[in-house]
Amino acid sequence: MSNSREQILAKVRANQPQDERPLPDLSAFPARSSELQDQFMTVLSLIGGKAIKVANYAAIEEYLRSNPQHGRMVTSIPELYGIAKPILAPGDPHELADVELAIISGEFGVAENSAIWVTENNFVQRATPFICQYLAIVLPAQQICANMHQAYQRLQGLEYNFGVFIAGPSKTADIEQSLVLGAHGARTMTVFLLEN
User: Are 189 and 138 in contact (CB under 8 A)?
Assistant: First the structure.
């Protein structure tokens, strides 16, 4: 048995490349900047989320008033304190257990999968986007990159205590192989693409 093993390993060693080859250049992935918002919105709808283009924070507040959530709303965005309570400094995450809607801001989005990079600075309490029933993220419309390669390039050299990419509402297909939204986190995710 060990004789066969040694023969195989000897053949593998004998067939190693002689010179090192450089890794492929991944920076050449094309970015269609004119279509990024449309691609982001399309992908988000395919994975169960909703994107709404808005001109300013007043338009977000107007949308939320015309589509009210019955329950506690919190936000980390001072411009929306008129409609939702501020998220308090980190404390016991259980204090957020009854939150219906959390409204947070995003740093940037990724068109290929509609993921949004958010950090602890965006939502004060780490549990916020995961414990709420419904999640809304305000994202500057011009802050969308084409793919995850570009996203990770944007993050190089930056340090965060906590950061995560969030794409759509929580979902699972483990239950009888049918897609279930809101299985272990936010039931819905709305992204407000802020023009200004």
Answer: no
Mean pLDDT score, 180-196: 85
**DSSP category for residue 122:** H
Characterize the bridge pairing of strands 99-105 and 134-140: parallel
Burial annotation 134-149 (CB, 10 A radius, 16+ → b, else e): bbbbbbebebbbbbee
pLDDT at 87 over 80: yes
pTM for the full model?
Answer: 0.80
Strand 99-105 and strand 85-86: pairing?
A: unpaired
Q: Are 124 and 141 in contact (CB under 8 A)?
A: no
- Best-predicted range by mean pLDDT among 2-11, 57-66, 153-162, 180-189? 57-66
Cα gap 71→73, rounded to integer Å: 6
114: amino acid identity, one letter: S
Q: Angle CA(83)–CA(87)–CA(92) in degrees, nearest 5? A: 145
Task: Quote the CA–CA distance of 34 and 31 in Å, as a whole number.
Answer: 9
User: Nearest Cα to 188, choosing from 171, 174, 164, 175?
Assistant: 171
